[in-house]
């Protein structure tokens, strides 16, 4: 398969390494200093482009790739909600393909399945309140993380006593704690911590007077995310339209 990479930070470099190790060809690498390459023959020859950039540029990158006739796998978070209608229209009416996920890790996919199953069980035990905490490196721009939002939405849709999620506290890299929302009984609180070079930790805790139950996914490196992105590209090669991680991993 011919792959283009959009965004050549730490993730981009790891994606290139893993893609080559799986026998794929990297035909184009686009970063901030060579945007003109979106119209190049090399980029147009790609079967799939893997995009990891910033919330402010992700949608424009998708449009440029689609204009070149290239399918897109995007792992950039913090943008999809703002462009939901445009993305749906592009995929349904214009024949474009976007595989977007807040997290491509195989481990996170399994964790999400456990999260949904546990929420269904805990719906019968209202004595337990639930809270979520996510920890990421200091370079991450959005909070809560896209993965944390996905997990929170899974819980809310299965727990009758929660109507929505809300941001709780943000612990900044300097240790300052900012309270963004006060706890409310009908809302799931999601707390964020920005610390060091943490690839990503997501924890869900159900707490009662008697005890607590916690499930956690702790990423050791970005490698799992990069491998998942390449697996998503392989899946996207033979599929079309609006795709996500639950299409690829069916539990």
SSE arrangement:
Blueprint: E1 2-6, H1 10-21, E2 25-30, H2 41-44, E3 48-51, H3 58-67, E4 71-74, H4 84-93, E5 98-100, H5 106-122, E6 129-136, H6 146-156, E7 164-171, E8 177-179, E9 187-194, E10 201-207, E11 212-218, H7 223-237, E12 242-243, H8 245-248
Parallel strand pairs: 1-2, 1-3, 3-4, 4-5, 5-12, 6-9, 7-9
Antiparallel strand pairs: 6-10, 7-8, 10-11
Helix pairs in contact: 1-7, 5-6
Give your account of this protein's structure.
This protein has helices at residues 10-21, 41-44, 58-67, 84-93, 106-122, 146-156, 223-237, 245-248; strands at residues 2-6, 25-30, 48-51, 71-74, 98-100, 129-136, 164-171, 177-179, 187-194, 201-207, 212-218, 242-243. The protein has 251 residues and is an alpha/beta fold. The strands form two sheets. The protein has a six-stranded parallel sheet with strand order 2-1-3-4-5-12, sandwiched between helices. A six-stranded mixed sheet has the order 8-7-9-6-10-11. α1 (10-21) packs across α7 and α5 (106-122) packs parallel to α6. The model has no long low-confidence stretch (mean pLDDT 96).
